[in-house]
Amino acid sequence: EDKVVQSPLSLVVHEGDTVTLNCSYEVTNFRSLLWYKQEKKAPTFLFMLTSSGIEKKSGRLSSILDKKELFSILNITATQTGDSAVYLCAGAPGSARQLTFGSGTQLTVLP
Amino acid sequence: GAVVSQHPSWVICKSGTSVKIECRSLDFQATTMFWYRQFPKQSLMLMATSNEGSKATYEQGVEKDKFLINHASLTLSTLTVTSAHPEDSSFYICSASNRGGYNEQFFGPGTRLTVL
């Protein structure tokens, strides 16, 4: 059975701090790892990672995948209160399109 | 691009009634649509995968007779919760995958169902 584990489950930081969110996966016939941000409603797409070692960046957010260690991290630098959300990672197999989601990391950024 | 809508955004119904939720891909053709369920403070749980023109594939533990899924066109899938009970109250989210994006899924805004 495919499994995605995120840590920590929750994190409270102050504005300006840098955070690292972790995601480990066991996905049959793995193809890609996706990161989403979920505020009050449905998740919004952040990154899709397919290759090891290639960092993807979007503003203050960046992510990287290690296919040898079956691991990905999401970094957020200079955090802002608007970054407060649940961050979800999901593993995608190559043979089908179903995503297996982790339980999420609840990030709270205090002013 | 890649916008997915859901209707209604929230619904309150009485126990025993049926509720239909629509999921539409507005600017692309979605060969595959997914239905998820999310309880408070929990992650998304895949309920079923539907491909246009064929029967949905349900995840283990999801009652297909209770959660009827129809994917009649490349832009519309519906989820009908039949004979709803309070334990069916949840946040239902659909996502759609287009032909080009193999694994990238675009999520709808979700539907909050409350069964009294």
Give the ordered list of helices and strands of chain A. EEEEEEEEEEE
* Through-space gap between termini of chain A: 41 Å
Q: Distance between termini of chain B?
A: 37 Å
Q: What is the rounded Rg of chain A?
A: 13 Å
- Tally the helices of chain A: 0
Most extensive interface between two protein chains, with residue counts:
A-B, 22 and 21 residues
- What is the molecular shape of chain B? globular
Radius of gyration of chain B: 13 Å
Main attributes of the structure:
heterodimer, A: 111 residues, mainly beta, six-stranded mixed β-sheet, five-stranded antiparallel β-sheet, B: mainly beta
What does this structure look like?
The complex is a heterodimer of chains A (111) and B (116). With 111 residues, chain A is an all-beta fold. Chain A is built from no helices and eleven strands. Helix content of chain B is 0%, strand content 53%. In chain B, strands 2, 4, 5, 6, 9, 10 and 11 form a seven-stranded mixed beta sheet that branches. Chain B has a four-stranded antiparallel beta sheet with strand order 1-3-8-7, with no helix packed on it. Chain B is globular and about 35 Å long. The model of chain B has no long low-confidence stretch (mean pLDDT 89). At the A-B interface, strand 4, strand 5 and strand 10 of A face strand 5, strand 9 and strand 10 of B.
List the helices and strands and how they pair.
The complex is a heterodimer of chains A (111) and B (116).
Chain A: E1 3-7, E2 10-14, E3 19-26, E4 30-38, E5 44-49, E6 56-58, E7 61-66, E8 71-76, E9 85-93, E10 100-101, E11 105-110
Chain B: E1 4-7, E2 10-13, E3 19-25, E4 30-38, E5 45-51, E6 57-58, E7 67-73, E8 76-81, E9 90-98, E10 106-107, E11 111-115
Parallel strand pairs in B: 2-11
Antiparallel strand pairs in B: 1-3, 3-8, 4-5, 4-9, 5-6, 7-8, 9-10, 9-11
